[in-house]
Amino acid sequence: MFYAALIAPFAEFGFLRRALVGCIAISLSAPPLGVFLMLRRMSLTGDVLAHGILPGVALGFVLAGLWMPALALGGLLAGLVVALGSGALARATGGREDAALAGLYLTALAAGVTLISWRGSAVELTQLLFGSVLGVDDPALLLMGGAASATLAFLALAWRPLILECFDPSFAQAVGVRGSVWHLGLLALVVVNLVAALQAVGSLMAVGLMMLPAIAARHLSRNVGGMVLWAVGIALGATLVGLLASYHLDLPSGPAIVLAAAGAWVLALALGPVDGLRARFRPGRHLKG
Amino acid sequence: MTAPELRIENLTVTHGRHPAVHHLSFALKPGALMAVVGPNGAGKSSLLRAIAGLHQPSGGRVTGFSTGQVALLPQQAMLDRSFPLTCRDAVLFGLWGESGAFGATPHPERIEAALDAVGLHGFARRPVGSLSAGQFQRVLFARLLLQDAPVILLDEPFNALDARTAADLLAVMRRWHGEGRSILAVLHDIELVRREFPETLLLAREGIACGPTEISLSAENRLRARMMSEAWAEGAEACGREAA
After folding, report:
1. pLDDT tens string B163-177
2. Under CATH, domain A2-278 is a member of which superfamily?
3. Which pTM was predicted?
4. Lower CB density within 10 Å: C or N end of chain A?
5. Residue A176's closest chain B neighbor by CA?
6. Contact between residue B207 and residue B196 where contact means Cβ atoms under 8 Å apart
7. Which residues from A are below 8 Å from B52, CB to CB?
8. Which among A166, A168, A223 has CB closest to B86?
């Protein structure tokens, strides 16, 4: 029973093992990026960038079909244009960055869906938006592993500058931390992770694996390191649960994984010691001093 | 400690095209203890930020020191106090000049000592988000202690503090002055300035007076400072003065 439910699917099916390995890689790298986006009050930016990569992916799809390198390259370029372009546009026109982001990503989303529906079928559209465990081929696996490695290396270098720049940007500038460089590096890696997760969980769902564990972790730890560890743990658990649910219940893998992460978020929200609902409404007796 | 002499020459700092600090020149002598006083919108914070290198001046220059010799206490509104950081980690950033982005922290016991010195014994593991405004100001003073800079710029250091916290932090500032550091502090409490600061710069975008406090804060000078219009002069012509 235990074996049949939890182990057998991975033992029997190579494609499921590949999806698991790939999703584990992304679970190690995407949630820490999500934590930093959340701490910078940019929780919705991941979502925006996920929409932003779509026209590039669609263009790759129109030109080369469901061939991973073309999809990834297109997605990467489109995502970087939205991520870096919105900042540049906002600075050049004196406008707000969120307004520029909204303008760019709405355009990108409409263009992407139009392109895919023009040349593809509904099945392929679903696969691109929501992912398919069948789709994790060798190039996709390499991309996921590469993205995770690059992200972890970046975070090892950027950890202190990112925290300092979030907490006290003026101080960071005064001691010579180039805040904008680290910020752009963070956004670029968000795009890379979203593109890498494209095949397994889909372009719209990839951001769920990045943000939901991060916002759940906010209720579980009071420091950045603790949040990152919680977020990675939740993402790993959600990956396992989601893939198994996807296999047993014949669900698309992306929504299944994201729903599992959402379950963890609801639990953390209800029971978490930091600003959780229970801590708020049933705080326990106050201390003597 | 020997502080460098800071020279502010014909400094103009603008927001858009409107001057916040207009053709200002003065010197902060080594070991000086100088207050910056002036009405709201007089350019006091802009002056400190320009000296600290956070705001590029549109004219003139600040000379006489190298990077790392100037430390700034910002106004609290500039920081994200909800950020999940312990007091220890927030103070630790004061050692950035030594540890940088990647290096180990030399002598971590100095962090505890700095917290003790500002009256925050036992606060090392407290999240900064749980502190009162006064306690948070103590944390920022502890960070300044670790920065160990010969020139210290304080932006409204004693605002909204209770008497005991203000007295404690004033004592820290006196100790810095006693060690030979130069201090330039933006303040609104004129009595405090008269009591503690031998020199004062009276600012109303332009420098009204700079020198011994009693002379700078004469009735005549303060009246001149009050004449400054806080509103931007929308129809003003371009300034023709030489931007040396």
Report:
1. 999 999 999 999 999
2. ABC transporter involved in vitamin B12 uptake, BtuC (1.10.3470.10)
3. 0.88
4. C
5. B67
6. no
7. 170, 174
8. A223
